[in-house]
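Database export, one record per block. Field names are fixed; values are copied verbatim from the stored entry.
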Amino acid sequence: MQPTKITPRTTAERKRDALERLGSERDIWVSTSHPDHGPHQVPLWFLWDGEAAWMCTGANSATVRNAREEPRVRLALPDALDVVLLQGEAECHPAREVPRGAAEAFAAKFGWDPRTEETPYAYLRVVPQTVRVWRGVPELRGRVVMRAGEWLG
């Protein structure tokens, strides 16, 4: 594998690129932690609504149990050459109580509606408080594009 020349982007360009990917990607890695059981990480389908990431998983999963116990989570898009990391707190919503607009948008994106399943599902909603974006070492400086819930640049 040969390294490619990376021209560092401005904060505004990084924000634009991150929002584009959040709106178009299908999968996101969700990292949670439990005080007694330690870290847990899984890939989930997600929907970006322009403000928050919505994911859905089994209501009894380790991800949901952890998020209820310790809501601070980290999300990562699956590309180590074009990193987008989000950090925030997860809100858990039982599938049958999730806001209608989010549930319908999720179902439209994936062709699957967890509200209709026999087994219980829960949606996690994460509004990022910090977003970091970078492509390789040349972009490590200035990688924070959101701080305290406010976009920079």
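Remark 1: The radius of gyration is 16 Å.
Remark 2: Strands lie at 27-34, 38-48, 53-58, 72-76, 83-94, 121-134, 144-147, 150-151.
End of record.
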